[in-house]
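Posting this for the archive.
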Amino acid sequence: MTEYYAHTPNEKGKWHYLKDHLQKVAELARGFADKFGVGDLAYWIGLWHDLGKVNPSFQSYLDACFIGKRHDKVPHAIGGAALMFAYALESQQNDNWKNLMLPIAGHHAGLYDSGELGLKLKDYVEANRELLQKLYIFSKQLSPQKSLDLIAYSKYERELFIRMIFSALVDADYLNTEAHFDEELSMTRQVVFSFDGLWRRFEQNQAKLMAMSGLRHNANQVVTVARKEIYEACVAAAQDSPGMFRLTVPTGGGKTRSSLAFALRHILAHPSILRRIIIAIPYTTIIDQTVREYRKILGNEAVLEHHSQMPISETEDQTPDQVRQRLASENWDAPIIVTTNVQLFESLFSNRPGKVRKLHNIAGSVIILDEAQTLPAGVLSPVLDVLQTLVKNYGVSVVLSSATQPAFHAIGGFVPKDIVPVEQFEKHFRKLARVHYTRRTQELPWDELAVELKGIKQALVVLNSRKDALRLLEEMKEMENVFHLSTLLCGKHRKAVLRLVQCRLKQGLPVLLISTQVIEAGVDIDFPEVWRATGPLDRIVQAAGRCNREGRMPDGGKVVIFDPVEGRMPKGEYRTGFGLTDFLLGQNDPDKLHDPELHEEYFRRLYAERNLDEHDVQPYRGILNFPETAKRFRIISEDTVLVVVNFGSGDELLAEYRSRPSRTAWRRLQPYVVSLSKHEAQKLLSEYWLEPVTEGLYRWCGKYDRIKGLAEAIHDPADLIA
């Protein structure tokens, strides 16, 4: 047998033999895909994925790379796919070939449009019969003994199945390649966690927390009792079979902790099915706090924080830098993942290997959609379809967690199980009404708003855009103890601001926090007074959750709903939500915002007014056009890029990442990254504010303000982070 190579030598001078690579990748892929019952199929795909490297031109390409000579690229992924296509033609399998060929052909550059790939493979087979004979001879020494049984799926189920098998292949390929190039780094991934052990840690921490609650003289016992009841309901419901769940809890009701208790107990109740927890969150500010809380309870290594996707150049190049960047993509190899809605859902609809790599690890997971109501209405049709398929075919449990529960049951064709029974959570909403809402009927000019705020000792102001936040900051510039929170600040800076604000609140010192909606959900902060610019109903309710959170003010906190003169209003669904809220507040007393029935009415009206697949994602999923599906599916409508800012250790960690890209280096760099729209980045690049690092990643060269953050970049496509 002729010896072929898969990769150039590692630092020890050892070449990576193709036969070894194919067999190891096949074994890994089978282990990953066994979780959803198609291990043998994944094994076969793993064996064939790099058959194209048998091509003598590709072997010459590797030789040239090794000695530093230039050589034209030699695509190899198409080789194994073409050989399988030839088999399909002979056996007259007109359609089933797509399940196999799409993952193989796309494992470096991404999943193709199935129609385009069919034509491409047909041309390749006709033009490369001699080469395919070489691949066939080599493959005979590798092929598994078992024949393949291809499963029949409905069209949308099939589309997700191809993604999942593709994910198993890509992760197996990347891991084995990493083991060749960096064996020491590869060994650090061999960490096994016991959910029994994690639950014991959690139980101990919970017992300590409840004991502390009993010792606090000023603790509001209504809040404490409600949190205890919610926690106990979550533990009890964890025994239910995996499926779709709904957790409805008023703000400040301990939802973050109780949902984790449900997930841990749910895994222990179903250990043969469930093996991972994924918490998806709308804002990075919530990630900061949630990760800190979970790590404090369960330990640093148990929790992976993942929000900013590292930009990756995904081609068939084999240069060392490109290989390292590709291998550094995230595969969610931890028991508990805290990520964003953007990362979770755009990965589920992506065609890029670096993004899709993690998907097989979603199988057998408990997905907690924290603040589920923030999912844009315009993508709900594809999102709910995928979630139901994950529950049906991949052993997933989904928890829709919110204080303002979206009416998904009215549009998704499913009825989630209530973790906290309806009569119980309705009682909690009545008892935990800790604020009084008032609404200003006259618009407020910025200067008049500033005058009113200067007379308040401690207050939070939430505005609808970053420009509005900066505008109010300008009015307050002469005032001390004013702080700012938005996505113009990197994660490390936001953490520092929140710590300082929380400290001042506890000490009774003056503090005014001007924020965008990033403060509204999941941030454990407690102001006596909150001012919220009129916006979507759920955003107002979430902002109110930052007021009198612990119930220390017996007469209730104060929430003022107002309209700033010349205030900016984001377009699309946000503006629709504003209009509906304006209408409903006109029909009801503002304190009706405490009522879950009003929340449901709001969402029913919102979904009735919106196209739930406004970018026509589902039709392209149905015809297996993966590039167009990826292009059309967006949680954030405008594409973004990542900018590393010169705050704290940002420059130092960027230099570390540039010198040796890895997942570890990227994870360390993430807290110093700000997300900007592509449009704004192009403008800033032309004005020399940005220095390119790699495609989609830049270094900020301008001033980083201690209050405003990345002060020059004020374009505001959305206050979400990719």
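The radius of gyration is 27 Å. The domain at 433-594 is CATH 3.40.50.300 (Rossmann fold).
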